[in-house]
Design a protein that fits this description.
With 948 residues, the protein is an alpha/beta fold. The chain is globular and about 90 Å long. Residues 445-515 form the Disease resistance protein winged helix domain.
Amino acid sequence: MDLVTGAMGSLVPKLLQLLGDEYNLQKGVRTQVRSLVDELRSMHVALGKVSQVPHDRLDPQLKLWASEVREASYDMEDVIDTFFVRVDGGRQSVHADKGKVERLLEKIGNLFSLSKLKARRDIAGAIEGIKKQVDEIAKRRDRYKLDDLVANSSTVTSIDPRVLSLHTKVTDLVAVNEPRDELIKTLTMGDNDASNKKMKIVSIVGSGGLGKTTLAKVVYDKLTVDTNIHCKAFVPVGQKPELKKVLRDILLALDKGYYMNKTNFMILDEGQLISEIQDFLKEKITHLMYFIVIDDIWAVPEWNAIRTALEDKNLGSKIIITTRRNDVAQLAHCTYQIKPLLPDTSKALFYGRIFGSQDKCPECFSEISDKILKKCGGVPLAIINIASLLANKLDHITEWQEVCDSIGSGLSSSEDMYNNMGKILSLSYYDLPPHMKTCFIYLGIYPEDHEIRRDELIWKWICEGFIQAQKKDDDLFELGLSYFNDLINRSLVQPAGTDVLNDACCVHDMILDLICSLSKEEIFFTKSDDIEQVVSSKNKKLRRLSLQNINWPRNGASQVRSVAVFRPSIDSLPSFSCFEMLRVLDLEGCYLNNCQDSMLYVGNLIHLRYLGLRRTGLKQVPKGIEKLHFLEVFKMQWDIELPPYIFELQRLMCLEGFRCRPRPVNLLRNLPSLKELSNLYVDNESAGVVEELGHLTMLTHLEIQIKLEMDQSISNALINSLGKLPKLQYLYVDNDSVRSNLIMWERWRPPPYLRSLQICHDFSLPTLPKWISHASLPQITGLYLEERGSPPWYGGADASARARGALNAPAPLFAGEQGISHPIRPRRHASSPYPAQRPPPQTRNYSGEQCRCEEASFPAAAIRGAPPLLHAHAPHSLPPRFHLLRARALGFPLRRPQVRQLLRRALRGQPVKPAPLVLFHRPPRQLTDPLLPALFAVEARKMECTGG
């Protein structure tokens, strides 16, 4: 399904569902449904062709026809969903485990139910009306020969695109050293002069896509490491910022632990937040300098407000601002004008993304590459975007020529650079397969610079109906995960998150501009400022709302399918009774203490599939929620008991909260569709839930916190329950019991699809379970064993031998307080000597921007069977010498003398030099940063050669 097809992708399967025996439709109605399905399938194919043509190249009649089909599909789906609710509350698919007699009695009851008989009569009339509407639309297609218009439109080859591909980050590898060093020199000049410790403010200014953010992050990372700055913050602003959010982000970056728990922190006004920052800098870090980066600021007033909060303590504090505006840049003490890449640097970036290195480019692609690079004008974002597009077009040089022709005259001036960006970026959009276009456009509901959590996004895609199973056994979440990974590999979104699990993404502001322009053409989603304009139009309807400034629609809400609110403080909520067709409601992060009464209406949203209430301040689960029989995803406020009526929601696939405590515990088995259960809290009053877990056989993701003393019976129940979960892929167990130990895990046999295992215990590790091996964990990409009571890795010869087996698996083994995971697996290219990695794996670095994994720099034979890297967070976490030999990259707190001493002994005892070591003491989320070899090479060589 894609943007122009509306609800067509989910509509056809629902029509086919109507033909099931349980709905007992009359013969004539069933015939109409079959005919309707055939016609809609034909339209779906036609719309698929339309979606491949740039919007500005479509004939006006074709645009109008496509718009009619899209709107009609939404209305049709609303009618059918309403029928499902009236007939069986949406619960028809979860009763497969009922006995034959019970199912027969239920069917007989349904046949003679007056309300359901009326629903069947109503759906018969609705189907007849839909059939007439579809027939008229089909006749219009034939009357105006719209199929020919699609063919003629698609013959146009000059798309005249302009933008670029987002991941500026790769510029780190090819052009960052000189400007980085220049900026650091400017920021640190005079630091040794005690009489001149005034705060320094440096601005980085330049057009979009040149890498301002990347450069700022590289300087930020390097300077905080080298000078040991502990008080630091990197805060994005954006074109239309909410100043209160920016000020809150500064405080959270400075001391997240304190401010996340501060009473009423989320409802402080601008003046209070400015005072809070001033007090923090004045009182809490009295004798410390600070280093803050304010990224992507567009207006002088916003900068002045932020500047007011940042007091000069005469301790040599440093501030970097990045901006496109010269008037903002000139307010700094010093300005750095960022420039386009030089030709040789552009080539290194371009060829590195496609072939791995410049010398691997086939001669036949050299000339056309030069033409493409010339049109990119040295803009990193453009180079990466085009390179990501061409990385999948290595079979025919003619495809490269078509892309080159489409770029038009290129980005020769700053005005052309911005004006052409949308069309160059649109090349990557139109290259997406139809089913991914809608998923990509949906990213636009999030605000600028918002970090989008991967799992949340995928669940929303599912609840919106964007992801449809192609085969009977398809897992919708797995399909969504592949879509997410593909968007990253195509450089359309940037990996982000708090670690390198690729569990989040962000969207470059220029790509967000493209998304918003595409959405406006189709009214796919509507933001706060555009609501009145859409409502006042006769031919447009509100379908999805993204509210960043609270502006609830006064009219036109009856057909809204999705509402996402991105504002911490809400004074009021509307009566949700007018949102009759709402499928997705996300209020996460909105403080709702003043809106308790409005939440009473949530139970009337009978079509709701997704309800997000995390971090809202609500004290209990909204009443009436048991009526939401279509609900598939429920994300709750922290520390809330699960009331009994939650377990009536038998379609639930994802249940997430913090310290969720089910009461009573024996109802958990009533959720047979559950795939993700997060932060389940088990204490003395809910110990029985451990046994209940074994009934959730569809679970793929389980997080459980055990806060009670585990005796033998509870330990056995846990292992037995986990053994009944054959589809489990992610398991996190946090156990505070001092009685239990890892020996109990010996009896467990991991499921074959397990990818990530995290076990945290308050005891020592006498031995590793025998199943920690590549043979038992063939799919593992992350293994994390934390022992809070004593040092890991020192379990004797047996533990060492078994850890060796795990390290032979092509995945990292985590030790210590934090860990990392494999990069996203890119699309396979048969011609690659590194089979699954052409282009090389794309990972996330500390700056949150996409990059090539350094693994590609080493021969496959040199690293085959070894983990990409091993992270040990504390000195006592250092593994035995064997693991040093196997790991390619190691991360340790270098400034701790104990670690340096341990490393010195280990390095001296190596008979063979290992692959290049990367030694550093940054958090593990930086471990795959390709800049590390450059940033820490001197220190690594010093350590290796002198034992320093």
